[in-house]
Amino acid sequence: MWEVELAKWMDNKNIKWERNRKLHQFKWTDDDGNKRRYYPDFYLPLFDVYLDPKNKYLMKVDEDKITRVIQENGIILHWGLLPDIKKELDILCQV
Predict the structure, then answer these.
(1) How many Cβ atoms are within 10 Å of 74's Cβ, its own excluded?
(2) pLDDT, tens only, 21-74
(3) Angstrom distance (rounded) from CA 56 to CA 59
(4) Segments forming the whole domain that contains residue 13
(5) Which of 27, 52, 53, 80 is the most exposed place for a label (fewest CB within 10 A)?
């Protein structure tokens, strides 16, 4: 549901976004050395930024994975609670 809300919010703010699992996927390495895939929810092409809204539980569960994805792929990824992502986007759009 957060993805739908964020998409509508970005549309209302005229923020161009993409959601394409084939184009926007990243590999990361787990603790056992296995390569895994990660698919962010949104990509903002004008800012070269990825977004992944999460609830508090998933923030805790996915913290290591997200950290590894960012480090191994050198991407900018804003992730976390929906209100926090909206605040970050408001700041990003003002720059």
Answers:
(1) 8
(2) 889 999 999 999 999 999 999 999 999 999 999 999 999 999 999 999 999 999
(3) 5
(4) 2-94
(5) 27
44: β partners? 49
What does the buried/exposed string (b/e) look like for 47-65 if buried means 16 or more CB atoms within 10 Å of the residue's CB? bebbbbbbeeeebeeeeee
Q: What is the pTM of this model?
A: 0.92
Reading the block at residue 38, the tokens are 């990660």
The count of structural domains within the chain is 1
Q: Specify the pLDDT at position 1.
A: 84
With CA atoms as reference, report the closest residue to 40 among 57, 56, 61, 62. Answer: 62
Mean of the pLDDT values across residues 5-32? 95
* Amino acid, res. 16: K
> What are 32's two structure tokens?
């056992």
C-beta of residue 51 within 8 angstroms of C-beta of residue 42: yes
Neighbours of 21 (CB within 10 A): 10
Question: What pLDDT does residue 31 have?
Answer: 94
